[in-house]
Amino acid sequence: MYKEYLTRAREILSDMTLSEKVGQLNQITITPYTGKTDELKELIRSGGVGSIILASSATAGNDPQGHVNVELYRDLQRIAVEQSRTGIPMIYGRDVIHGHRTVYPIPLASAASFNEGLVERCYRNIAVEALADSIRWTFSPMLDLCRDPRWGRIAEGPGEDPLLGSRMATACVKGFQGDDLKADGSIVACAKHYLGYGASEGGRDYARTEISDVTLYNYILPAFRAAVDAGVGTVMSSFNDINGTPVTGGRKYLTDILRGKLGFEGFVVSDWGAVCQLEHAGFAENREDCAKKALHAGLDLDMCDKCYIENLPDLVKKGEVTEQEIDTAVTRVLCVKLAMGLFENPYGKCANYDKNVHLSNAKLLSDESMVLLKNNGVLPLKKDTKILLSGPFAEERRTLLGTWTLDGSAEETPNLREALSQKAAGVFRYTEELKDAEDCDVIVLAVGEDYRKTGENHSVSDISLDGAQVELVKKAHATGKRVVGVFFCGRQMALGNAAGFFDAILYAWHCGSKTACSVADILFGDVVPSGRTPVTFPQKPTHIPLYYNVTSSGRPANGYYGELSQGTYDDGDYAPLYPFGYGLSYTVFEYGKAECADGEVSLEELKSGKKVTFSVEVTNKGDYDGKETVQLYISDTVASVIRPIRELKDYKKVFIKKGETKKVEFHLGFGDLGFYSENGDYLVEKGKFNIYIGKDCLTDNSAVLYVI
Ligand code: GLC
Questions:
Q1: Which residues, at least 6 apart from 200, have a Cβ–Cβ distance to it below 8 Å?
Q2: 602 and 454 inside one domain
Q3: Which residue, 158, 205, 273, 542, is most buried by CB atoms nearer than 10 A?
Q4: Please, how many CA atoms are within 13 Å of residue 374, restricted to the half-sphere of its CB?
Q5: Is 462 among the catalytic positions?
């Protein structure tokens, strides 16, 4: 896809000086040039800038950012194209993470939709809005698998499962890039943070990681592999080290695995300042050494720390870096620029879009992302219910948009008070202190966490609901009225200290522009909830890490996932409060027995492409039409590297009308039944596989398959 531009890229390269080449590997931010526009223009004119990041700080996700300045970008681009000797256009990048003007659910929430078709459509909308503001490249999707919700950046990724992560990766890349990168409405995506950043120790941002190669290949890499297979143009190297090697200086990661095993053809950009961080990490002696090590590892574009531009020319003169290595990196950058049509169209296209269509897609996705965690029958509310609304997020707007919202407008975002008062036909009141609760039928509490508790450099040590909110919940419960909790969160919280006081819990996440509208529709039953947990919800923060795709301990007393009462902690079991894949509906889905068409298949047949069919009948026995996410898990019972007790291998989100039965089929083949060895070789081993089909990872509805 990118290599087809190699010949043209090499032609361009043959006419470039060393300093122009190094300029192509330099990404700058405009902020340091405030008041020094002439200096900036001269740098561009001299061929010193390959790319500009449209962000004014290193932690743009939570720092207020300036707005995009399309006219300035066009002026600067004109200098690159018309006044520099090579005429190579710059590529503008911005962190357009889960929305641009219209804001969609945070990525963790959109994973909860289990609806990648809808995610792809929404990400296409995002690309169109970004492109209209001259943004040609986004630093998204973030694909870091995460098992520690203390990490603030869990909000930005797809959660704890490699298959779900891979499906979301494909959807986002296809949405951003489309089928044709040159087409109107396409922008270049960036799979980040490669690699292992989500495994930071203790959930502390930027901290070290210890990752075995088996874990790397089986859990952490799959989403990146999916992004590469979907044609992602760029990959961002992460800040962290893995087992003592910073990824940004690790040839094993950036070259051997990424290019050798995954077949990536685009270019690698560092995270902000990650090249010079090699010195801070104690991996390089000085900035010159940083540049040398990063280039050698396979890092192509240096984000914002000027290590390359300041050091590579001298390193070549000294013979410590070859011009060939630089040529390789420049060629990769040029191939992406050519593939995206930047030379023909350096200024971006004027994609016209209908903001209302984008808003309605954002609404659909937030409808499907919210997870009904608990309901003792209070929901859905009848239209004439007298509601009393309280809680710290009842009138909040900005938090609903979530972290990494650079261009969305909080003022234009309805809050829950507004959304509910429009829907409630009965009496609706908002009070901060639960005053006069006797007059109401139901208390709705808007609780959760501020968006600044999530995102980059915003980890927390305690993921429980804070003390003041727990007090409020208890007070509401003590009134004797039914209490509905609406949780606005950027991660799974540990709700063991609060869940018991609620009659219903709707986990609304930070779902973007339409968050409050979706909540109102779900509470009143105009939308039937269908989101599923993309992560495990522990009872207590001290149970972290807790994730579903865990291997067996060999001591049966430990049970699966803490499900057995004995053999867990002395002070209580660690069974999750809500397991992976879990979510309630207003209707009732009943499952028939999991069926397997063939009880056995030979390894040879699998290798030659045979698929085995599994099926289940699902009946909607309730009073609402609704969507059900039917999940298929496998367990490879004996293997040379022990396998998890459950691994999600497929799922289908199906719409089933009330009274209707649907047969849901799955087809598993060679690519579904195996795992990666520590060398990264993919193996399917003979033996018994248990196949589980049901509503979440705890299902026992199983069939058996023998691979012979
Ligand atoms: C950062 C982040 C990364 C982001 C980049 C550019 O510090 O880690 O996710 O894309 O800077 O803003």
A1: 148, 151, 206, 207, 208, 209, 240
A2: no
A3: 158
A4: 20
A5: no
Q: What are phi and psi of 146, to 5 degrees?
A: -140, 130
Neighbour count for residue 686 (Cβ, 10 Å): 11
Place of tokens 């300036």: 66
Phi, psi of 504 (to 5 degrees): -150, 145
Return the bridge partners of 25, or none.
none
Regarding whether 509 and 370 lie in a shared domain, the answer is: yes
For residues 593 and 539, state if they share a domain.
no
Atom of ligand 1 at shortest distance to CA of 190? 10
Residue 652 in domain = yes
C-alpha distance from residue 293 to each of 195, 282, 329 (Å): 17, 12, 14
Q: How far is CA 301 from CA 239, 255, 259, in A?
A: 15, 14, 16
CATH at 654: 2.60.40.10
Q: Position 474: which residue type?
A: K
**Do residues 366 and 427 share a domain?**
yes
d(CA 79, CA 249): 33
Pair (452, 531) in one structural domain:
yes
Q: How far is the CA of 11 from the centre of ligand 1 (A)?
A: 33
- Of 491, 523, 543, the last residue of a domain is 543
Other Cβ atoms closer than 10 A to 436: 10
In a domain, 25, yes or no: no
Kindly give the number of the ligand 1 atom that is closest to the alpha carbon of 193: 9
What's the CA gap between 254 and 263, in Å, rounded? Answer: 11
CA distances from 254 to 22, 82, 179, 293, 300 (A): 19, 34, 26, 12, 10
Q: Does residue 464 sit in the same domain as residue 607? A: no
Report, as ranges of residue numbers, the positions in the chain whose pLDDT lies below 50.
none
Between CA 57 and CA 67, with CA 62 as vertex, the angle to 5 degrees is 60
Query: Degrees (nearest 5) of the Cα angle 84, 89, 95?
Result: 135
Same domain, 419 and 524: yes
Instruction: Say what the pLDDT of residue 436 is.
Output: 79
Residue 537 near residue 634 (C-beta atoms within 8 A): no
556 and 601 Cβ atoms separated by less than 8 Å: no
Residue showing tokens 């004109």: 78
Q: Could you give the count of Cα atoms lying within 13 Å of 543 in the half-sphere of its Cβ?
A: 27
List pLDDT tens digits, range 404-458.
999 999 999 999 999 999 887 667 888 888 887 888 999 999 999 999 999 999 9
For residue 483, give its domain range.
362-543
Are 289 and 260 within 8 A, CB to CB? no
Q: Which of 510, 543, 576 delimits the end of a domain?
A: 543
Cα 269 to middle of ligand 1, angstroms: 11
Dist. CA 138–CA 146, nearest whole Å: 22
CA–CA gap between residue 83 and residue 76 (Å, rounded): 10
The CATH number of whichever domain residue 404 belongs to comes to 3.40.50.1700
Tell me, yes or no, whether 381 and 509 share the same domain.
yes
Q: Max CA-CA distance within the chain? A: 82
CA dist 3 and 268 (Å) reads: 15
User: Mind giving me the DSSP string for 216-262?
Assistant: IIIIISHHHHHHHHTT-SEEEEPS-EETTEEGGG-HIIIIIIIIIIT
Around Cβ 615, how many Cβ atoms within 10 Å? 18
**CB-based contact 97:494 (threshold 8 Å):** no
Residue 48 CA to ligand 1 center (angstroms) comes to: 22
Q: Which of 52, 95, 195, 275 has most ligand 1 atoms within 8 Å of its beta carbon, as the pocket-test mutant?
A: 95
In a domain, 508, yes or no: yes
Closest to 141 in 3D by CA, of 120, 163, 114: 120
Length reported for the chain? 708
**Which residues' Cβ are closer than 6 Å to ligand 1?**
55, 58-60, 95, 139, 192, 271-272, 456
Q: Which residues pair with 515 in a beta bridge?
A: none
Cβ atoms of 555 and 567 within 8 Å: the answer is: yes
